[in-house]
Specification:
two-stranded antiparallel sheet, 6-stranded parallel β-sheet, 8 strands
Length: 218
């Protein structure tokens, strides 16, 4: 009897695996300070996250649109310098990833965050070993909610995207990716994303709960 093919799992990063609001807000406020602007509350900056660095800076610094490339370069440098000072794993993430890996699933991180930063964060937080590949901003021409990052990750893992695969994320961009790709979607209700009416197949309050749910589907 042939072995059953396990689903491939495509994970968002910010708001799904990690609570990175403190470091993102810190980097934005350091850039704002460089341009003579006062800091914004972390809660305000968190609502601006989800569509890549350029959109983040356009939202965080209105009136500076003509200097956007300069702002993005500044912010990327600030963030890379202070990458995991105030970032931590959500409860249940490491246990959930270990359980999912034990099932034999191929696993990828697909994030709009600058690609080269992703492995550094995962390694610092001791979860890099659970993923076959990581892809992010700069790896494809268009960021999420376009499904290009997902297809790139699948190609790098040597698999094709199947309807039984899963996107796991907290933000509407992740949920929309799943819809565009025709695969199943897990909404992480504990994250700081905004579903904005996008549908999902299951909703969980920690990643261990998704691992437990997936076992019942196999």
């Amino acid at each position: 009897m042939p072995m059953k093919q396990m689903p491939t799992l495509f994970f968002d990063l910010d708001g799904t695996l990690i609570d990175s609001r403190g470091d993102i807000a810190n980097s934005v406020n350091l850039t704002r300070a460089d341009y003579g602007l006062p800091p914004l509350p972390m809660e305000t900056i968190s609502t601006m996250v989800g569509n890549g660095a350029k959109q983040l800076m356009l939202r965080a610094m209105p009136g500076f649109e003509d200097r956007i490339d300069e702002l993005v370069a500044n912010n990327r440098q600030q963030y890379a310098t202070h990458l995991v000072h105030y970032t931590y794993l959500y409860p249940g993430v490491k246990e959930g990833l270990a359980a999912l890996r034990a099932l034999g699933c191929k696993m990828a991180v697909t994030s709009n965050k600058t690609s080269c930063l992703i492995p550094r964060i995962l390694e610092t937080l001791d979860i890099l070993q659970y993923f076959d590949v990581t892809v992010g901003g700069g790896d494809v021409p268009v960021l999420k909610p376009d499904p290009g990052l997902l297809y790139l990750a699948a190609e790098k893992m040597g698999v094709t995207v199947q309807p039984t695969d899963w996107v796991i994320g907290d933000h509407y961009t992740d949920l929309e990716v799943g819809r565009h790709a025709g695969i199943r979607v897990c909404h992480c209700a504990y994250g700081f994303g905004q579903p904005r009416g996008e549908s999902f197949d299951v909703e969980v309050n920690d990643l261990q709960a998704f691992a437990d749910y997936l076992k019942t589907c196999l």
